[in-house]
Amino acid sequence: MRFGQVQIGQRFRWQGQGFCKTGPLTAHADEGGDQRLIPRSAAVEPIEADQAVSAAPTIPRGTALSALDALGAEIEAAARTLPPAAAEAVRAAWANGRRGFIARIDRRLPGAD
Fold first, then answer.
1. Domain ranges (residues) in the chain
2. Is 73 strand, coil or helix?
């Protein structure tokens, strides 16, 4: 398959590395996150959805939760500058989003048990 045949958003392998097509000539690298310019004529191999999940890089659960807590601290600091009703709405939305995020990572990250 040629890069020009890949649909935007589709994952593929090129030169031994995984990518996601982001534009007619561009793709986002799985590792490192670099944006690359790829010739339309480049021979690529599509990555099936089940392969994509197993090939995706993972981080430990504790690292993800630490980053989430740091974000939560920033949100809380911003909430303190709002009127009380607005601050409570932000806190409730954050708590709901945090629970949903943790539920999703618990299904995907190592050390989630």
1. 3-55, 61-106
2. helix
Name every residue whose Cβ is closer than 8 Å to that of residue 14 and which is 6 or more positions away in sequence. 3, 27, 38, 42, 43, 44, 45
Amino acid at 48: E
pTM of this structure: 0.47
Q: Which residue is associated with the tokens 């670099």?
A: 34
Phi and psi at 46, nearest 5°, equal -65, 145
The tens-digit pLDDT sequence of the chain (113 residues) is 999 999 988 999 999 999 999 999 999 988 877 889 999 999 999 987 655 444 455 678 888 899 999 999 999 999 999 999 999 999 999 999 999 888 887 776 555 44
